[in-house]
Amino acid sequence: MQRIYEPQDLLEGEMLLGMLASEGVDAHLAGRHLLGAIGELPALGLLGLLVEDQDAEHARRLIDAYNAAAPLPGEEPDASPGILLC
After folding, report:
1. What is the pTM of this model?
2. What is the pLDDT of residues 56-72, one digit of tens each?
3. In what order do the strands lie in the sheet with 27-30?
4. What is the spatial distance between Cα 5 and Cα 18, in angstroms, rounded to a whole number?
5. Pairing mode of beta strands 2-5, 27-30
6. b/e per residue 18-46 (b: at least 16 CB within 10 A)
């Protein structure tokens, strides 16, 4: 397995797991159970998306496309353009 991406947080990691699964890529989110120990561990580098070696390049391309995505025109909130409100 190869570590191909470090999500910013658990939410992004879980979302990327779902996106990769929908594209037929089996992935594992390493470090999710370490987040409760942030005071004891370094704050960065705990989370990592792992995929099988043969899926690594395809998964990287999918994640690059995710990172390059922009909101559709007209989908931005009027009060805060450029900020995604959930």
Report:
1. 0.70
2. 999 999 999 999 887 77
3. 2-5, 48-51, 27-30
4. 14
5. unpaired
6. ebbeeeebebebbbbeeeeeeeeeeeeeb
